[in-house]
Amino acid sequence: MAKTTATRGRELDRAGLSDEQLVAMLRNMLLQRQLDNRGFQLNRQGKIPFALGSEGHEAVQAGAATAFRRGADVLVPYYRDLGLALGVGMTPFEILSSLFARVTDRSGGRQFPNHYTNHDLGVLSISSIIAGHCTHAVGVAAAFKYRGETGRAVIVSNGEGATSQGEWHESVNFAAVHCLPIVFLVQNNEWAISTPQDMQMKVANVADKAPGYGIPGAVCDGFSPIAAYKAVHEALERARGGSGPTIVEAKCYRFLSHSTDDDDRTYRSRDVIEERRKLDPVPRFEQVLIEAGVIDEARAKALKADVLRETNEATDAAEAQPYPTAESLYTNVVAADYRPWQEFQQ
Amino acid sequence: MAATTITMPQLGETVTEGTVAQWLKKPGDSVEKYEAFVEVSTDKVNAEVPAPVTGVIRELIVKEGETVPTGAPIAIIDEVGAATPPPTGSGSPSEQVAGAAGNASKAEANRQASDEPVPGGNVGLGGPSYSAPPSGSGASNGSGASSGTVANGVRVSPAVRRLAREHQIDLAHVRGTGDHGRITANDILAAAKAGPSAGVAATITADNAEYTAPAPRQPAAAKPAYTSAQPGDLIPLTQARKIIAQRMVESKHTAPHAWTMVEVDVTNVWKWRVREKDAFEKAYGVKLTLLPFFIRAVVESLARFPLMNSSFTDEGIRVHRDVNVGIAIAADGNLVVPVIRHTDQLSVKGIALAAGELIEKARRGKLGADDLAGGTFTVNNTGANGAILSAPILVPGQTAIVTTEAVVKRPVVRDDDSIAVRSMMNVCMSLDHRVVDGAVASGFLSDLKKRLEAMGPAGSL
Amino acid sequence: MMAATAQQQQTATTVMTNVEAVRTTLHDALARDDRVLIMGEDVGARGNVFLITKGFLEEFGPQRVVDTPLAEASIVGVAIGMAMEGLRPIAEIQFADFIYPAFNQIVGEAAKTRYRSNGDYTCPLVIRTPYGGGVRGALSHSVSIEALFYHVPGLTILAPSTPADVKGLLNAAIECPDPVLFLEHKKTYRSVKGEVPGGYYTIPIGKADVKKAGTQVSVVSYGYNLHQALDAANRLEGEGVSVEVIDLRSIRPMDKTTILDSVRKTRKLLIVHEDNKFGGIGAEISAMVAEEALFELDAPIRRLAGPDVPAMGYAHPLEEEFMISTDEMAEAMKALAKY
User: Fold this and answer.
1) What was the pLDDT predicted at A339?
2) Long-range CB contacts (within 8 A, 24+) of B299-302
3) Residues with Cβ < 8 Å from B131, sequence gap 6 or more?
4) Nearest of A77, A15, A4, A73 to residue A240 by alpha carbon
5) Distance, in angstroms, between B92 CA and closest chain C CA?
6) B433 given a catalytic annotation
7) Are β-strands B36-41 and B46-50 bridged in parallel, bridged antiparallel, or unpaired?
8) How far apart are alpha carbons A105 and A102 in whole angstroms?
9) Residue A220 contacts residue A177 (beta carbons within 8 Å)
10) Chain B within 8 Å of C321 (Cβ-Cβ)?
11) Rounded (10°) CA dihedral A189, A193, A196, A202
């Protein structure tokens, strides 16, 4: 079981990442935080019915997204993967179109927020069924292997709660037996709505289960984007090289309630959250980069302003879009040119 | 400087109201777009609400601690130099969103299971569930058809009903070859096929035992043989003729026919008719004969003798509520009996017009199923060709049928023993002796005679 | 000369059983299209419990004939992922009775893939499974499952009864760009033989087939029952009762036109299915016909179906009580004709 953490201070273990990549990671985290917030704001304003927060996940997702190879890899996310979605190339406009349920949403306003789909970027369409996407991810990896496409891998992402589902187990098992190019990224934020980890599993780490499947597991600091990057990168390289799956568990924390429909005051104490807030990865990574001399305060400020600007523009643009028409309900049930009455061919 | 009214947002999909827990700004304070300016609590969540615009708080409408419904105004902000122009088009979704978002999610909630749809848990497949009535268990087989026994009236399938209507077939005269004598669709089609002009008027027998008479839909112009019968001819039976024959036999063999008659002095009513007829014909284009006067008297007498307006059934003598008088009409070698519905509700004029219409239709062969259905009593003007005495055959299902014989001028001895020349008309009646006897029958006829003799010449139509 | 003979051979028909039709069709699909692969329990080394894929592993290799772990949800789920990624997987559920763990993936995921992504992703997946009873399979090797799935928009459900239809529809299923549940009645595997044209062909999905024309009663059926219905109808022909037998073939989409045309002709409809009566597909057919052709009907619509008990028992009286006999069908047809 490998553990990786990034060090603070001027000596930065940058894991081979360039300054641009580091700054891009920070920007991703800032954008995720800003968009996250915007979702809540819009909901509290009464403008959108529903939003899900991902505060606390910025680091692991920025790191994993950096390890993801665009144009080759496939991401099978879950509904808290805003940072991953942004990190692999989705735009704030797409995200907000989904929140506002406008016609510019790629699912045509059909999906709940945060249920992304983007075939061009390699983001698989998902449902709300926890761990329902895990077998699909394995299937995609199986297709890569089937076609002999080495160098391609799949990241499937979910929380620690999903690992209780039978289908998560079946997915890991299948991938292990068939040695498929896939990384099972488990973002352990310690809470599945109101269920704490110790009511979800008996082990301290999800990654402890990996030997049970005959595959390696790794625990990393999900509050450090560089540490997360290292762990996911290593696992992806293993996968691309044909050595099969890895379970990468990133320890992080869910700072907010599960969603705008949840009030975590009924099951969590404020003190604990406040204590964990001190380790908030977003301001922390900003500090790390400043201390390492990668950026200065002014640059940090400019980044934030730019992210806010981008968010505001995307919000206004998305809000101005029309809703899908009622008629669109009936499309794409089956293929549009699907003619069951095919000609009898000989 | 635009004033924006902020309304209570819907925090949570089933939430209908909110409480202002704490104002974070007071009037006169400036506020940025997205800056929290109030804390709101609902039974689901407590939350800070961000301002939708940048400006200055003008008014706080709701007090701290006060609860208002979703969508109620809570504050007014004077917008200052809005950074972005408001979305275009009043129809744009954004302006309706404050309420629409709530409505949309309400609709969503309605479509989903009662549990809140939370992507953290499996979303219920939702929608209302209907419990269907329990089916019988055990393997079913093809038997056990519904009981379409004849006793309850002929129960017809949708196909039979439709085909009978389309082909103008009278169900009462189709022999069923299906289970328990059920009339099948093929029976109807066979009946329709018999005879090219299929000249039998359609009558749909409902599940009551009211009888409706047959009549050719179109005069059998294609069968000149009957109307121009020659010695030595063997005239083939038309469908109409077959059915007439069938019904006549049925009638005679079912109801024991008794017969009686009265002589009626129609001098006055005749005078009345003569007085009215020209104007009437001019006004309505319909001939005014003695018939409507007669029928008017008949319905009044039927009111006194309701037993004459009845049907004999195995369950009992059904005394009809409605009075629907049928008029026998000869048309092209066939007999039709169209029916004036609710005759008792019509005046002489009304009867004249209704009868005129039916006669005209009969002449043109345009009588429909409704015209022929539901008769309860029948009048036959046998006197049209000069007869002074007739013994009519009952329409099956009716208790009586009366005839108006020819009006003949005769010398009669009056009450004061003087002799006068009066217009006399015999009225004959055949009756179903199962239902009424001579006493009732002649009572009815006497009443009828009295009324007729009391009519005119100064009456009104 | 040689070319002509080759062509003759190509289009000549062969007599084979239903199971042989499945086998040859799968084999040809693997040979024809690189994207096609078969996955399921025991499909590789064992060659499938009915020997349908015997020899395939040796011929096509373990990549294309995949022995999966014993986990139906992932058999279907992984196949979904492969289909979303552009392959044409044919997933096998060993017995229809075992399909329930995969219900989540079939109904919650496969059926909705195109819809929820608004066409961004599709799921050209075939799930094959043997169903039905009469083979002493007892409670968990005999069920019919079509009624559980035919309700779901986005799914195609096929249930051919004859070898020629099996081949044509299985090919169509593999070609179909959306998920197909392909049902094979196990009692017909070896008991039904028929002529199958050579060469590649498909049969239109959503089209029923009038297997026997008649004038007095329309019978709609599929699976093993279809053959019984034909036997009963042929027997009645000799007694002067003319029954039209329609092989439904495609449960969803369902061929309304053929059914309605027949009902308009005969005016009497009998639906026969082995599956439980309540909520079986006979219910949908009845509602549809009543809705669209009420005034053509000369008799109530009849359904002859399985009893509403969870499953047929192992003991032969229990199985026989559950299964519909040919005599029962003949009686029902005759009664309806007479009505």
Assistant:
1) 60
2) B299/B323, B299/B325, B299/B343, B299/B344, B300/B451, B301/B444, B301/B447, B301/B448, B301/B451, B302/B344, B302/B377, B302/B444
3) none
4) A73
5) 23
6) yes
7) antiparallel
8) 6
9) no
10) yes
11) -90
Q: Which of B48, B54, B122, B123 should we substitute to test contact with A (largest number of A Cβ atoms within 10 Å)?
A: B122
Structure token pair of residue A180: 């498929």
Q: For residue C339, give the amino acid letter.
A: Y
The beta strand positions in chain A, using DSSP E, are 2-4, 74-76, 154-159, 182-188, 191-192, 195-196, 217-221, 246-251
- Residue B298 — φ and ψ, nearest 5°? -60, -45
Token duo for residue B208: 């009551």
Q: pLDDT 10s digit of each residue in chain B, 461 long?
A: 688 999 998 776 667 888 999 999 999 999 999 999 999 987 666 788 999 999 999 999 999 999 999 889 999 999 987 544 444 444 344 333 333 333 334 434 344 333 333 343 333 333 333 333 333 333 333 333 333 333 335 578 999 999 999 998 888 888 888 888 889 999 999 998 885 444 343 333 333 333 444 444 444 444 456 777 888 888 888 777 877 888 889 899 889 999 999 999 999 999 999 999 999 999 888 889 999 999 999 999 999 999 999 999 888 999 999 999 999 988 767 788 999 999 998 999 999 999 988 988 888 877 877 788 889 999 999 898 889 999 999 999 899 999 999 999 999 998 899 999 999 999 999 999 999 998 999 999 999 999 999 998 777 88
CA–CA distance, C251 with C149 (Å, rounded to integer): 10
Question: B376 with B309: CB under 8 angstroms?
Answer: yes
Indicate if the alpha-carbon torsion angle B193, B198, B200, B206 is positive or negative. positive
For residue C329, which of C193, C248, C219 has the smallest C-alpha distance? C219
| Domain extents in chain C | 12-197, 209-338
Number of A/C CB contacts below 8 angstroms equals: 168
Are A140 and C108 inside 8 Å of each other by CB? no
Contacts of C177 in chain A (CB under 8 A): 334-335, 338
- Cα of first residue to Cα of last residue in chain A, in angstroms, is 59
Q: Which CATH superfamily is domain A19-344 in?
A: Thiamin diphosphate (ThDP)-binding fold, Pyr/PP domains (3.40.50.970)
CB neighbour class for B135 (10 Å; exposed up to 12, middle 13-18, buried from 19): middle
CA separation for the pair C254, C204 (Å, rounded): 11
The amino acid sitting at C13 is T
Our CA-based measurement puts residue A229 at a distance from the nearest CA of chain B, in whole angstroms, of 26
Whether omega for the bond prior to residue B457 falls within 30 degrees of 0, making it cis, is: yes
Class of domain C209-338: alpha beta
**Residue B187 to residue B175: CA distance in whole angstroms:** 7
Q: Do domains C12-197 and C209-338 have the same CATH topology?
A: yes
- DSSP code, position C109: I
Please indicate, yes or no, whether the overall pTM of this predicted structure exceeds 0.80.
no
Q: Residue with structure tokens 């320890």? A: A251
Question: Tokens 């061919």, residue?
Answer: A345
B/C interface, count of CB pairs below 8 Å: 72
Q: What is the ipTM of this complex?
A: 0.87
Taking the C-alpha atoms of C222, C225, C231 and C234 in order, what is their torsion angle to the nearest 10 degrees? -40
B379 touches B295 (CB < 8 A)? yes
Cis, bond preceding C69 (omega within 30 deg of 0): no
CATH domain C12-197 topology:
Rossmann fold (3.40.50)
Output DSSP code: residue A257.
-
- Residue B437 annotated in active site: yes
CA B342 – CA B351 distance, rounded (Å): 10
CA distance C272 to chain A (A): 24
Contact indicator for B277, B288 with CB cutoff of 8 Å: yes
